[in-house]
Amino acid sequence: MTIKRQRKPFFIPLSSMSDVAFLLLIFIMLVSLMSYRREVKIAYPEGETAKKTSAGKNMEIWIDRTGGLYLDGYPCTLGDIEDAVGDRYRNAPDTRLHIIADRDTPFREVQKVLEILQLLQYRVVSFVVKNAI
Fold first, then answer.
1. 75 with 38: CB under 8 angstroms?
2. CB of 124 within 8 A of CB of 97?
3. What are the tens digits of pLDDT across the range 97-121?
4. On the CB side of 16, how many CA atoms lie within 13 Å of its CA?
5. Contact, 61 vs 69, CB < 8 A?
6. Quick check: 129 pLDDT over 80?
7. At 84, which CATH number?
8. Residue 100's beta-bridge partner residues?
9. CA 98 to centroid of chain Cα atoms
10. CA-to-CA distance for 106 and 73, rounded, in angstroms?
11. pTM of the predicted model over 0.70
12. Gap between the Cα atoms of 101 and 109, Å rounded
């Protein structure tokens, strides 16, 4: 007895492709947000010369016009800055510290941060300004 095979046409279901594309889009959006750099909105002071540094080894202290402190974009206190700078110096002494202050920030607020850095004897410090040219 011979068995007849019935050939069915090959079919790829396309109804779930839109779901897969949507999930892939969500995954890409979430992964891209992981490397998001937090910034504080400030008006940069102007400078005449500029020097570029490697962004991977930088630590940023932001000071807004009211004297609010931010460490790498997150709100903090002077004690938090002292702890973080001390830890970073022990682990990677060549880390460059950037102080980014608003143009209208009173200098006494910047001086508080500089006093902490002086006590820690941290010497790789840059002031970030906007190029005037």
1. no
2. yes
3. 888 888 888 889 889 998 988 888 8
4. 3
5. yes
6. no
7. 3.30.420.270
8. 62
9. 13
10. 20
11. no
12. 9
Tell me the two tokens of residue 38. 């937090």
* φ/ψ bin of 72: left (φ > 0), alpha (ψ from -120 to 50), beta (otherwise): left
Strands (E), 50-95: 58-63, 69-71, 74-76
In a domain, 113, yes or no: yes
Name the strand (E) or helix (H) holding 81.
Answer: helix 78-91
Q: How many residues does the chain have?
A: 133
Six token digits for residue 10: 């090959």
83-93 pLDDT, tens per residue? 998 888 888 88
Structure tokens at 78: 């002077």
Domain for residue 17, yes or no?
no
Look at residue 127 and tell me if it is in a domain: yes
Q: What is the per-residue pLDDT across 32-58, written as a single tens digit (0 to 9) for each?
A: 766 666 667 777 666 565 555 555 678
Count how many domains the chain has: 1
User: Do the domain assignments include residue 35?
Assistant: no
Domain limits for position 60: 46-131
Asked if 131 contacts 46 with a C-beta cutoff of 8 angstroms, the reply is yes
